[in-house]
Fold this sequence. Notes:
Elements: E1 12-14, H1 40-49, H2 53-59, E2 70-76, E3 79-82, E4 84-90, H3 101-106, E5 110-112, E6 129-136, E7 140-161, E8 164-171, E9 174-183, E10 186-208
Parallel strand pairs: 1-9
Antiparallel strand pairs: 2-3, 2-10, 4-6, 5-10, 6-10, 7-8, 7-9, 7-10
Amino acid sequence: MKPGRKFQLTLGxxxxxxxxxxxxxxPVPKATRVKLPVKAAAxxxxxxxxxxxAPIVKRVPNLAAPQxxxxxxxxxxxxxxxxxxxxxxxxxDHFDFVTDMQRCLSRCLAWFSADGYTFWGSxxxxxxxxxxxxxxxxxxxxxxxxxxxxxxxxxxxxxxIDSFNFGPLPFNGPIIQPHPCTLNAGYHSxxxxxxxxxxxxxxxxxxxx
Length: 209
């Protein structure tokens, strides 16, 4: 699960967050105990292995000390935990008997197609979006880990925390890629945007360091 070779680690920042969602029509669920789809130690190893990590870890030493990380939220197709409020998925695809929704849900995945499948009517749009909306309990440094897997070759996405863009993330196969950021207390939105290639969304997990 190596990070994309050309991806450079940056320390994101969001001081404003996003407005608290209206309660009417779409209530915010109560916080629950966080269930981790991936261990903090594995995420810390991936963080340290990402180009550009050394000066960031020197600035924020706890990024290399996962034993001190506090789980905040986790998102997956089959469930949300912690302070996870909403998981919104846009332009996910259903290809019958291969990556149909029932099959993906049984494996806790969401699939986003890219090129090919034109015989079956695919528009090849590459417009997949994942939005993970969560509550940061206090000001501090957080790690948002995206767990993805490309399908049929390389893929590329870009990840954002609110309006801060971490830049293009290329990957080929399964990946766990942490995105460290400083956040104020309040609601925030981690977004994954498809740029090229087909991929699966597995999970997004948030820790406070």
